[in-house]
Amino acid sequence: GNSVTQMEGPVTLSEEAFLTINCTYTATGYPSLFWYVQYPGEGLQLLLKATKADDKGSNKGFEATYRKETTSFHLEKGSVQVSDSAVYFCARGPSGNTGKLIFGQGTTLQVKP
Amino acid sequence: DTGVSQDPRHKITKRGQNVTFRCDPISEHNRLYWYRQTLGQGPEFLTYFQNEAQLEKSRLLSDRFSAERPKGSFSTLEIQRTEQGDSAMYLCASSLELVVRGAETQYFGPGTRLLVL
Predict the structure, then answer these.
(1) Average pLDDT over residues A44-57
(2) What is the pLDDT of residues B23-54, one digit of tens each?
């Protein structure tokens, strides 16, 4: 099938801790992969993306590498801040002619001072 | 701000009433998408347009739902005879079709939160 699976939350970390949020996908072909972030009370914002195998997307200290062999796109950050507290969504882009994104269920990150 | 805008931001209605939401995409974007997000879940695709053509509809889009994009710019999503199960956040996104298929980025609006009593 076509799906995206994220690790369940909430993830609670202390400030400056290392973050990993796991994401795996199933798809036919090689879709683009995305991480979106939703801060409290706000809409979805694109955090980073990768469009082909071995690409690394990065933004605001976050990184994710498109791993074709493990069908994964794990999100990492070396040192989280309180302001990173949000819900993070992994998504895969369209395969074939469809334009839709397929989202994971979201992972809530809480960073404590 | 020239991002995606949605109106209204919140809507409370009684079961059985009709509601209509509007989405204004980023001006040069030719693709427009509607998603639905329920609490604790990721957005689920409903439908999308390329210019004024509706190219795909999800099974989630029952016959009570209809979407239009008459001039290839703004779009409306109407729900007829609302049910309590329709309560959700309705998200609109837009993108610019790229030569490399699937590489486009969808930009989301703030959403319309619907509560059906």
Answers:
(1) 93
(2) 999 998 999 999 999 988 999 999 999 999 99
Q: What's phi and psi for A66, nearest 5 deg?
A: -75, 110
What type of residue sits at position A50? A
Nearest to B48 among A4, A93, A100 (CB): A100
The number of angstroms, rounded, from the C-alpha of A22 to the middle of its chain's C-alpha atoms is 8
**Yes or no, beta carbons of A89 and B42 under 8 Å apart:** yes
Q: What's the CA gap between B34 and B31, in Å, rounded?
A: 10
Contact B111 A49 (CB under 8 A): no
Mean per-residue pLDDT for B62-66? 93
- Which residue among B35, B58, B103 sits closest to A51, beta carbon to beta carbon? B103
pLDDT value for A104: 95
Q: Are B49 and B95 in contact (CB under 8 A)?
A: no
A34 vs B contacts (CB less than 8 Å): 105
Q: Within an 8 Å CB–CB cutoff, is residue B69 touching chain A?
A: no
Q: Does B89 touch chain A (CB under 8 A)?
A: no
Query: Alpha-carbon distance A69 to A71, whole Å?
Result: 6
CA separation (Å) from B93 to A18, A74, B116? 31, 24, 23
